[in-house]
Structures are given as structure tokens and as C-alpha cells.
Amino acid sequence: EDLSNSFNMSYITTGQAHKQLKASKKEVVVDGRGHLLGRLASVVAKHLLNGTHVTVVRCEEINQTGSHIRNKFKFIQFLRKRTNTNPKRGPIHQRAPSKWFARVVRGMLPEKNRRSTEAQARLKAFEGVPPPYDKIKRFVVPEALRVVKLSSARPYSNLGKLASQLGWKHSELIGRLEAVRKESAGEYYAAKKAAAKTKVTSSAEVDAINAELATYGY
């Protein structure tokens, strides 16, 4: 579904010198599967600044333009950047896809001020779809979908595959958890369709309409 109509923000002016954001109570959940990394991050960053709480799930299914080997070498070069005297001082190289996405969003926010800190606090990112987000409606961002914005002839890579080859150790675990979740969701959807079909076929009004249509040859 389109995400654009789900963000309704408002600012409130106080007696202080700065404006305080009034965050929407509704938390918007975005399914990251099949989205392009930079395009999705730019949309999420804008709405975080506007006061919306955004949760991105299935970060391991986010795509990045460019071939897999090219993006892998780029991250390997990034791993070499460190403080020469004491590497513990940074930069810290996260390996999880959700941390990668959060870092990209952070780079699109203002630096070192209160507005940026509050915006980053509104973002949540997860691998897979953990509870309770498996029971919450998930949205997509059409302007960030790979099938919409990237030519089919162009190469792209997968964050989960990149991360698993560069130090992320939970790819297999997330795969098992996702298999269980999809099986449970499939059973729920099948039961829901069966219940809806039973409700429709048992309606006396529908039976009367079908009988009338039968007289016309339908």
C-alpha cells in the first residue's frame, strides 16, 4: 500500500526558543523487502524528521544497486577505516542489515543536534518480522521499490547476503524464524478465506440473488 497517506504530522509551538515535535501516536511499519536502500532511507528519514515513528522490518531483504562483488569490496574497504592509535574509538562497523539501514538513515539526518537525536529515536529496524509486527499491517514505499525504479538489466545485491559474508552470523536463524512465521500466516489466511466463503454462501440474501440470476441464465 502507499505510505504517503499514512503520515500526518503537526508541530506545536511552545514558549521555548525551539519547536517541539508532536509525534503521531500511530507507528508505521514498513516492509523492507524489495526496496532500494538509498531511496527507502531518504523517505524514512524525511518522515522521521516530521515526527512519525517508523519501523522497518525484513531489512535483510533490502536491495542495493550495483553488483554483489562490487558492494562487497566497498564494505571491505570501509572495514579498513579505523582510529590508528585505538580502533575502539571508532568508527564502529556494524554487521547486521538493520544496523546498516539505520546508519544510512542517520547519514541523511542533520548532524549532532536535538532534532536529529529525536528523529533517530523514532526509528526501529529489524531483521525478519518479529512480534508484534507480524500481526500489524505493513506498508511499502512505491517510489523506493526496485521493480519500479531499477531497470531489469541493472545488477543489484541483497543486504542479507552481503552481511552474512561479512560477519553477520544470524542469517540462518532469521531464515528459520521467517519460515515458521510464513507457515503460520499461510494457515491463518487460509482459515480466513474459508470463513469468508462460508459466510457468503450461507447468506439467505445471496441465495435469493443467485436464484434470480439463474432465471436469466447466469
How much of the polypeptide forms β-strand, as a percent range?
Answer: 5-15%
Taking the sheet with the most strands, its summary is: 3 strands, parallel
Q: What portion of residues is helical?
A: 40-55%
- Which structural class do the helices and strands define? alpha/beta
H/E topology pattern: EEEHEEHHHEHEHHH
The total beta strand count reads 7
Distance between the termini: 35 Å
Principal-axes shape call:
elongated
Characterise this structure:
The protein is an alpha/beta fold. The chain is 45% helix and 11% strand. It is built from eight helices and seven strands, in the order βββαββαααβαβααα. A hairpin with a 7-residue loop joins strand 1 (10-12) and strand 2. Helix 1 (37-49) crosses helix 3. The radius of gyration is 23 Å and the shape is elongated.
Précis, in short:
With 218 residues, this protein is α/β, with parallel strands linked by helices. It has helices spanning 37-49, 68-79, 97-107, 114-121, 146-149, 159-165, 171-201, 204-215; strands spanning 10-12, 20-22, 27-31, 53-57, 63-65, 123-125, 156-158. The longest helix is centred in the last third of the chain and has 31 residues, at 171-201.
